[in-house]
Amino acid sequence: MSIIQQPTLFDIDYLEKLDIQEKYKEIFSPIDWTKVLNLFQKDSNVGPSITVSYEALLRSLMARIDQKIPTQKALIQRLKSDLRLKLSLF
Questions:
Q1: Across residues 24-33, what is the average pLDDT?
Q2: What does the CA dihedral 30, 35, 37, 43 come to, rounded to 10 degrees?
Q3: How far is 88 from 86, CA to CA, in rounded Å?
């Protein structure tokens, strides 16, 4: 049986040295958001429009794991208090 090695998207040591805005730019740039966001599309045009930014929501949940934020409530508080994190995700 042969071993297939997949190339990595980015080096973890390299990411740790980057500024927070550059770090998330490197993490989120290879992701194709259109396929994921199509899962959240409304089926009909009837009713109010959806004003939630699902891309920003998914980015913040991914950053929660990276920043080791324990709960979603703590994530919301961190986004309200840390402008650099908020701007790098939205």
A1: 78
A2: 170
A3: 6
Amino acid at 78: R
Phi, psi angles (nearest 5°) of residue 86: -60, -45
Residue 9, pLDDT above cutoff 70: no
Could you give the percent of the chain with pLDDT greater than 70? Answer: 72
8 Å CB contact between 70 and 84: no
Q: Which two tokens stand for residue 75?
A: 């994530």
| Residue 89 and residue 23 in contact, taking contact as beta carbons nearer than 8 Å | no
| pLDDT tens, position by position, 31-54 | 787 887 777 776 667 766 666 777
Using alpha carbons only, give the angle 7, 90, 23 rounded to the nearest 5 degrees: 35
**What is the rounded distance in angstroms from the CA atom of residue 73 to the CA atom of residue 68?**
13
- Residue 43 φ/ψ, nearest 5 degrees: -75, -30
Other Cβ atoms less than 10 A from the Cβ of 64: the count is: 19
